[in-house]
Amino acid sequence: MPKIDEQKLIESAQSGNHDAYTQLVQLHHVRVRGFCRSLLSHTADADDAAQEVFIKAYRGINRFRGEASFSSWLYRIAANHCKDVLRKRMRQKTDSWDALVEKGGDQVEALAATEDPQHKSGVDAELMLQALKTVSADYRQILLLREVEGLRYDELQLALGCSLDAVKGRLKRARQALSMGWRHLSDKESV
Amino acid sequence: MGKGWENMDHQTIQDNLWLLNDAELPAQERQVLVDHLVGCPDCSEQVAQWALEQQTFSALPKTEKSDFFVQQTAERIRALPERRGAFTWPAWLSLPQWSPVFGAGLATVAICLVFIQGAAAVSTETLLLAGMPDTESWMFAATDADSAILLGLPTE
Lengths: 191, 156
What we know:
In chain A, 80% of the residues lie in helices and 0% in strands. By secondary structure, chain A is mainly alpha-helical. Among the domains of chain B are: 54 residues, no CATH class; 36 residues, no CATH class.
């Protein structure tokens, strides 16, 4: 869709037009859902998160000034929301883990040590997904935005709300971490 | 072209390799790094390794369009309380040629307000004398000289 049309849709949505905003959702939902899926892994959670992102964006659309592209702005909301979800998930995991260990003790520990058979695939994409899980959420985020969504450095700067130097530094460290995870998993697979 | 990379330390070159890979490097610096890659097996290996990993990203499962998702999101948005549109000034108001007109208008309004306030203002003296009978008001309100002037008597 030409940019001018998107601009009109944004202006219309800013004045409270639901249909215009629905068209914006239509335009961007694949990318936002893809981004949430990559960050949260779990598809249902990711779609819920993507929906929340669009609701948040709708509520705050009057604050969108057009300095960044609309998609960068959405990514920024998505990145922050997914971080919150991951934080919450981590907390719940710790809570439920503690409760389980109290109840089941060693049995639970043994259960956790067994590998999920779904992850034993030799497909490279699966290996990449696994490698992505080994890096921190911040690194995963920047890698996906760059490698999957194809954002340029200036767009990353806007989407992540940090300086250009920070983008370069974080991306470099993220790639090094991913390479390390990738190599580690490849070695494990080849054994 | 000379070997400009020889003036850079290896760490800087390695940092810049990422920028080269992402096409975020100016043309001149790009050439310097390409020259370096030709003669440096370590850096070439690193670039090759990263290119391999990068290819794998494209193999990640793609997200499909979902009308259900769009419909569900639209329904949730419609269910939200009505949001008023942001107030925006008409575009013609922001044209620079209107600035003197607005300036003059604002000044006129300000002057009018000053006059209206002046006419409506009540002095402390008036307030103090408001509850007194007229004769007593004169006693308190004016000095002898003022009273003489007001009564048309000769003054000293």
